[in-house]
Amino acid sequence: MALLITDECINCDVCEPVCPNDAISEGEEIYVIDPDLCTECVGHFDEPQCVVICPIDCIPKDPNHVETESDLLAKYKRLTGK
C-alpha cells in the first residue's frame, strides 16, 4: 500500500529529503506522495522513513492504493533496476 499525507501536514519539509524514491513533493497546499513511486521504503529501510521522521504523524497508508509487501518489493526492483 502506498502512503498518503493528510491535511494535518504542516509543510515542515522533513519528509521530502528522506524519501529514497523521490515519491514526495510539494503539492499546492501540502506535500503529496506519488503512489507510483512509493514503496513504503521496502527494499531500502525496515520502516517508511517519512513516517519515522514526521513530527505530527500525518502519513497513514493510502486505502486507495492497496499493495502487498511483495507488490512493494516488485515496485522497488522496477524503480531501482535491482
From TrEMBL:
- Carries keyword Kinase? no
Q: Which sequence ranges are marked TM in the entry?
A: none
- Decide whether keyword Iron is in the record: yes
What residue stretches are annotated with the 4Fe-4S ferredoxin-type domain?
1-29, 31-64
Q: Which Pfam families match?
A: Fer4
Supply the alphabetized keyword list: 4Fe-4S, Iron, Iron-sulfur, Metal-binding
Q: Which InterPro entries match?
A: 4Fe4S_Fe-S-bd, 4Fe4S_Fe_S_CS, PSI_iron-sulfur_center, YfhL-like
Q: Spell out the PROSITE patterns in the cross-references.
A: 4FE4S_FER_1, 4FE4S_FER_2
Q: What is this protein called?
A: YfhL family 4Fe-4S dicluster ferredoxin
- Name the source organism: Psychrobacter coccoides
